[in-house]
Amino acid sequence: MNEWNLDRFPNNPYLASASAEWQAARQAGAVFTRVNTVDGRSYEYLNASTPEGAAYLDRVFDALNEEFARPREERTDNDPWAGWLYDGENGADSNVNFATLDWSSGDFFQSISDESRGVELQLIWSPSNNFQMIFNYSHVKRRVVNPGTFVEYPYEEGNWDRWASWYFPNANWGLAGVAPTEAYPGGEGGLPNRDTSTWTGLGWGKGEALDDTPAHAVSWWSMYSFDKDLLQGLQLGLGGNWESRREYASAFTLPVSASKMETAQLSKPYGCPSDDQCHGKVYIQNIQ
């Protein structure tokens, strides 16, 4: 509770937005001092089971979500952060009890589901025995359909921890910058769904590019073979390729970077369209 203590961090705008709720929680005894069972030192804790304690956390979470709801270019804070809420998350401090403590101690991973759709065309033009041209075009779209699922957390009746880490308004983890009602739709009263299995995966890859495969790619190659006189056996080739810009952020990028506004501006050779990639190649061979 140290970083979420308004008395210690009065300049944090998200904590300061809940100053009235903080004072009410302190007056009601929802903020209390107790000896930490790990290091024997005294700390302040917040009892979110009380209406006053819950109101304080609700207001701070609301302030964070309001900032994340702004378009990125309109934000007053590039990294909205109210402090680390989950002190004692390793379970060592017996004074701490919240849903985030109930995590699996093993290395378990979920497989994602994805899909790829596209078209590929190839045209071969050979107007004579000596000359050939090959054109290739491909269009592909790879996206994550489902980045995984959550089980339903077994909250006890009347004891819903709506401030657990999976509801936390943050860019790198938690809600990953997505509105709570979009990440967990179907809730009541403007709140996210308490059923954690309703998690949509938004912000963690759903609907995003699986990797940086370009959407469009074009290549061409031409070859001329000489079969007479002194140049007999000489082959000249000329070709090149072009591809649309690659997305820097994808489903495997940290959520804070997974923004349509944060595609890499890759360098390009002279004469190549902006944000695209094109290359040329010349090939000469004498097979005599």
Number of helices: 4
Order of secondary-structure elements = HHEEHEEHEEE
Our estimate of the beta-strand percent is: 15-25%
The largest sheet, given as strand count, sense and whether it forms a barrel, is: 5 strands, antiparallel
Rg for CA atoms: 29 Å
Structural class: alpha+beta
Explain what you see:
This protein has helices spanning 13-16, 19-27, 51-69, 180-183, and strands at 31-35, 42-46, 113-125, 131-146, 216-225, 234-243, 277-286. By secondary structure, the chain is an alpha+beta fold. It has 2 domains: 1-97, no CATH class; 113-146 and 208-286. The chain has a 5-stranded antiparallel beta sheet, with no helix packed on it. A two-stranded antiparallel ribbon has the order 1-2. A hairpin with a 6-residue loop joins strand 1 (31-35) and strand 2. The longest helix has 19 residues, at 51-69. 19% of the residues are buried.
Gist?
This protein has 288 residues and is of the alpha+beta class. The protein contains 4 helices and 7 strands, in the order H-H-E-E-H-E-E-H-E-E-E. The protein folds into 2 domains: 1-97, no CATH class; 113-146 and 208-286.
Q: What's the helix and strand layout?
A:
Layout: H1 13-16, H2 19-27, E1 31-35, E2 42-46, H3 51-69, E3 113-125, E4 131-146, H4 180-183, E5 216-225, E6 234-243, E7 277-286
Helix pairs in contact: 2-3
